[in-house]
Amino acid sequence: MAQLALIFAIVGLGYSDPINEAGMMVAAAILVAFFSATQDIIIDAYRREDLPDEELGLGSSMYIYGYRMGMLLASGGGLIMADHMPFSMVYMIMAGCMLPGVLTTLLTPEPKVSIGTPQTMKEAAVHPLLEYFSRNNALWILAFILLYKIGDTMASAITTPFYLDIGFSKTEIGAVVKVFGTGATLVGALLGGIILLRLGINRSLWIFGVLQALSTACFAVLARIGDSVSVLSGVIAFENLSSGMGTAAFVAFMASITNKKFTATQYALLTSLIGIPRAVASSVTGFMATYIGWESFFIACALIAIPGMLLLLKFAPWNSDPAMEAEVI
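The chain above was modelled as a monomer; its predicted structure follows.
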């Protein structure tokens, strides 16, 4: 139902007139965002319920891979098509791209959950929160989710102004950062899933967290060197590769700590927290870069990752048995 509603919302957005039908366009955009988020939550819940714990990392990386490919094709492909046809037709094509997903949903069996599913609204909305916050490490885990990628988020929030300020052209930024960088992210997500399958979630969080911090610090090196396409390419490759791996581990971790009886509600709670550092911490990045300079700013973003890493000592120690990770958490 969410996918069908999303198709109609996309079509409605494409046929709305931003000048004469601004209200319709806003309503359609809100519906697209709502049903898109609903679909994401359902997919996350399905992945958690269908896959065993040891396969969550690889499953998460496949999800990120498909998500990134969709973003690349929709943004880049949509703009290219808009040069040759009306926007209404572009949105019709994008809505049509949803049909394989609908067909997949119809052919995919419902996962079997041995512990049952909520039967009332109270069990679906209230019990998941009560169950989560009754855990010993509940607040520590929420703090970790808020802090684990905060440095990476702050650094990436103003990278485009940074590239322009140190002398790169828009063409260089588009070619290296957007196209080449997206490819590195896809490779990182796939590689991260493979490593997760071998090392487990806990150790992967440690390794990928360190790599994320180091890749953020590399931007300070780029700030010192300046306009060098080769250095930019190296930094972007490292940053997107480590970010892809870190995101795969992060998503797998959040899935692993949800109760299979309440996957949708608990995962929605955890993923909604990711947006807080993006909105709050990113709002001060411009002021920081202005007053302390680019080099100091990126070094600070790298150091901000330390509290999130230290929280791993609480519930994801390096020497924990991968087979026992769910019990530790």
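Residues 121-328 form a domain with the Growth Hormone; Chain: A; fold (CATH 1.20.1250.20).
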